[in-house]
Amino acid sequence: MDIETLKAQNPDHWNKAAAIRALTLDAVAAANSGHSGMPIGMADVATVLYEKHLKFDAAHPGWHDRDRFILSAGHGSMLLYSLLYLVGDPEITLDQVKNFRQWGAKTAGHPENFLAQAIETTTGPLGQGIANSVGFAMAEEALRARFGKKLVDHYTYVIAGDGCLMEGVSHEAIGIAGRQELSKLIVFWDNNNITIDGTVELSDRTDQVARFTAAGWHVQEIDGHNPAEIDAAITAAKADKRPSMIACKTHIALGHAAQDTSKGHGALTNADQNAAAKAVWGWTTGPFEVPADIKSAWEEIGRRGTADRVEWEARLADMSDARQAEFARTMAGEAPKKLSSTIKALKKQISESAPKLATRKSSEMVLEVVNPILPETFGGSADLTGSNNTKTGDLGVFDVDNRKGRYMYWGIREHGMASAMNGMALHGGIRPYGGTFMCFTDYARPAMRLSALMQVPTVYVMTHDSIGLGEDGPTHQPVEHLAISRATPNTLVFRPADTVETAEAWEIAFTQTKTPSVLSLTRQNLPTVRTEHKTKNLTAQGAYVLADAEGKRQAILMATGSEVEIAMAARDILHAEGIGTRVVSMPCWELFEEQDEAYRKRVLPGGPVRVAVEAGIRFGWDRWLYGERGKREKSGFVGMHGFGASAPAETLYEKFGITAEAVAQKVRDLVEGRWQPDPRA
Ligand SMILES: Cc1ncc(C[n+]2csc(CCOP(=O)(O)OP(=O)(O)O)c2C)c(N)n1
Ligand SMILES: [Mg+2]
């Protein structure tokens, strides 16, 4: 259908959609950057969705039972900002739209979830939104099973572009959604056949309809500019028991000189061409001006859900006080009071019995006592359940016929798992944790970075955290992954030395509201080093004195995880030789950095020689070796300098020189002034 016919057939619809198109052109032109074509192309789909289907109340963007709208094609951010301004969102005002992409504005280049309540997730890295949406839809299912349909009953709508569908993570997401029959997930594919380099044919020939169908989705193909077809397709999608993909044939930059070309993808800033496009759309007002009747029609859409919300609030108010309080606590992500006492009791029991355990097993022990008292936890693993020790007795398996299950078999999909976990956390009401091998942090990395950026407390259970995993060899032995994780802002990286530290780490991870955690856990057994029970959570200080020097303090050994045992053994050797040695356990650098100067100085005083021991690369350790009152000539590192190898763990520690004797020798050299620059450092 040509534009004139579309206009004539449904002028009310056309004008509402034109408002999105015009605001997009104006904001992108004012910013002199951004992406005009996608919002212009998808304006009709978005208009019908908001006008006829999306359950929301513009004045209350935080209403828990709202439908979620996820703009996976995040470069088209002006689509979202236009919609929010038009419906009367309290945060995305006209001023915000005028300040698109400027310092301090909520209308950032790509949507950022932490800038406005109505922005459900941060998108821009293509594919993330569609993968997050799987988590949103799972969270809805899980919470509906827990709290009932009266409180939780909403859809998750997604707009994904060609780019989102080409990214690998979309494959993982589509597979999960199909297998789990997430019937309330509805994805619109902006099928415009254009990406930045040209047409899709340049790089892809996938039959997307066949692909989604093969994964178990309900699929429809429509004209993405025809409001009647869009409406009917959404209605049909809702009625189907499968997740739905609606392939919307659209024209990027519809009505603009750049229509149907890759030029239309980016910033359309040519004033004449923009004026001509507005003329084609029948848009006659000045920049950022929406005629009052069109604006008020949009505001009416923004109020469409008010009655629903009020009824929902009445239903909530009708529930028992206890139920209301539990719902509020769950949605706010507050840990129950019992968590702290449960962790303390476990710590006491462990300090007394001093078991020798792999910290992955310690982690399971913690989860066994914590999961029953935190009904919001949701565990899983990327096909390594028995290795990651993430499944505890009471969880039950999340599945089509058991939405109360709190354990997910994610399959071999680290990236999809991480991204979906972010979606669950963003939805609210769920505390997701998921496991894989530490070296496959790489496979989950794009989503792990977004957990940190988006400020969501997703927990990553990363087991087999060093050469200590042994025979599987260097492909499976992380060496740089601690450094990568620690380099990521707003991420707590825990490498606990025993069960007590593991329990403390979990307590911290499960009380975060804005920070993800990475738990780096061993495959191999470790002794309990915290044999004296302390109620205080020492891991919360990031680093602490585990064992002090006897006699004159000549050396400080800093270690994490499995190497704390080695540091303790080195301390014994050195003490036998009269070299007073302190061992500092450093389970979480980030928390140690947060401590005040006085505490850090007490733990790491200047003077003694310092040796760090960690079965990973040195990167980052210099901060503690000589950045924190230390001296380069009095410091050394015992760890990895390259990739590992395939052999039994004990052999590897021996061959790579990560032994108590090697640590003791390093200390002797430093104490006796035989420091040498390490060319590998
Ligand atoms: C992971 C990732 N890779 C690359 C980019 C850069 N990028 C932004 S949009 C885009 C093209 C996307 O094509 P499509 O989804 O079809 O969007 P359209 O051109 O139709 O608006 C690319 C490559 C990105 N944002 N994220
Ligand atoms: Mg495209």
Which structural traits does this protein have?
681 residues; alpha/beta; 27 helices; binds thiamine diphosphate
Give a verbal description of the structure.
55% of the residues are buried. The mean pLDDT is 98. It contains 27 helices and 18 strands. It is of the alpha/beta class and 681 residues long. The protein binds thiamine diphosphate and magnesium ion. Thiamine diphosphate (TPP) binds next to helix 3 and helix 7.
As residue ranges, the low-confidence spans are none
Radius of gyration: 28 Å
The mean pLDDT is 98
What is the terminal separation in angstroms? 66 Å
How many individual helices?
A: 27
Q: Determine the structural class based on helices, strands and strand pairing.
A: alpha/beta
Strand content: 5-15%
Number of strands: 18
Helix content class: 40-55%
Overall 3D shape = elongated
Bound molecules: thiamine diphosphate, magnesium ion
Strand order of the main beta sheet, please?
8-7-9-10-12-11
| Main pleated-sheet profile | 6 strands, parallel
Give the structure's gist in a few sentences:
With 681 residues, the protein is an alpha/beta fold. Strands 8-7-9-10-12-11 form a six-stranded parallel beta sheet, with helices on both faces.
